[in-house]
Amino acid sequence: MYDVVVIGAGVTGSAVARELSAYQLKTLVLEREEDVCCGTSKANSAIVHAGFDAEPGSWKARMNVEGNLRIRQLSEKLDFPYKQNGSLVLCFEEEGIGKLEELKERGEKNGVEGLEIITGERIWEMEPNLSRQVKAMLYAPTGGIVCPFKMTIALAENANVNGVEFVFDTCVENIEKTAEGYRIETEKGSYETHCVVNAAGVYADVFNNMVSKRKLSITPRKGEYCLMDKKAGTFVSHTVFQLPTAMGKGVLITPTVHGNLLAGPTAEDMEDREGVQTTASGIAKLSQQAKKSAENVPLSMVITSFAGLRATEKGGDFVLGEPEDAKGFYNAAGIESPGLSSAPAIGVYLAKQISEQLGAEKKTDFVSTRKDIPCVSEASPEEIRRLIEEDPAYGNVICRCETVTEGEIVNAIRRPLGARSLDGVKRRTRAGMGRCQSGFCAPRTMEILARELKKSPLELTKTGGKSRLLTEV
To answer: Which residues belong to any copy of the FAD dependent oxidoreductase domain (predicted)?
Structure first.
């Protein structure tokens, strides 16, 4: 019997698990994929929103502003990349300046600090490559960028070190109420628990509707992105938005914490909850919209494109906490933008509610910090020498584009909740994320995976399941 079962090991589920791990609770995370961070959490804008967009008093407003602050703090404690680069919202018509003022007023009500309307030549002093059609922009200095892979993995690893169990490749099929809580039926057996946390992304409405008469309805909203080479990484220094519409915050242009340039997302409502394919029409639309912000955005330097799904709930806000008729069942549903920014605050909020309901006390031996894999590409010559002295594998470069070594890949496989696939290594080390998109390093990474996991190369996958990489050797 578990105290809590969390469904979903994305950034929200991992954040909840990490906060629950600070309490004396028996906690389990169930994930249908082969690793953490395999859904929306791996395919998004990697933005830490300032919090000026959400309606004051909404869950989105409250969780975004608090989450923004917590991410800054957690990035130091859990050692994942974060940068407070500030964000801009562009207005292209004089009549739109009033909407910028409304956003500023809304942000100030939400508690966002430092908001400012910028006009005149200062626009291009801050961002020289912006379109000359920009009439004004809202500047939010507390906006930031983060690595969503590293953040999610850090939260999950820290939860695991503190006793939370993770079970992967396990799809939840049914949930029913019991006298003591809930029974969760999966394809691999059942789990009994006092409480459930529903952090299942685009499937969160399905699980809520199994136990509550208060029905939720989630529409997957697909967003397509283009990632550009590091040579384009300094094209802008801030995250550049356009005035938001009913379909979201529109196509943005932003640097990434790793030095690339990202443009996207589009917004297309879907029926298919697995529909993450990119399309020629989507990329064309993205290109057209991005050029509105900056005519010369270097889309000729695109090295890959991808798509993700946002879980848009019909009510327009996050759905957090217990339905009235399903005590002990805690929703974290409808977690679309600003979900990544809000995740740490959602984790604290739900963990507090659950611990109070179960009467759980805080641990005295909770480990609140964690160190990431040493990054050779960012290390000083002295640090590299020390790493190689401790382990010569740190001197063997496997991924030339990102300067990832054998030592880093081995570390990624051996650490808590270690990598079990090619994409698992990629998310933890960036091996394969460079210009050649794993064309050179994939075979060498597979050799290390096979050796470390004691598996035949024929058993290795790109991202779990049936995504086998080889048919014969």
So the answer is: 3-352
Residue 432 gets which letter from DSSP? T
Residue 390 in tokens: 């401790």
pLDDT above 90 for 294: yes
Which amino acid is it at 378? E
- pLDDT, tens only, 109-157: 999 999 999 999 999 999 999 999 999 999 999 999 999 999 999 999 9
For residues 138 and 90, what is the distance between their CA atoms, to the nearest angstrom? Answer: 7
How open is the CA angle 131-135-141, to the nearest 5 degrees? 85
Whether 238 sits among the annotated catalytic residues: the reply is: no
Terminal Cα distance for the chain, rounded? 44
Choose the catalytic residue: 49, 194, 238, 258.
Answer: 49
Q: Retrieve residue 29's tokens.
A: 């995370």
Q: Which domains does the chain carry?
A: 2-41+149-218+315-358 (3.50.50.60), 83-144+220-311 (3.30.9.10), 376-459 (1.10.10)
| Per-residue pLDDT at 471 | 86
**Beta carbons within 10 angstroms of residue 94's beta carbon:** 9
Query: In degrees to the nearest 10, what's the CA dihedral of 447, 453, 454, 460?
Result: -60
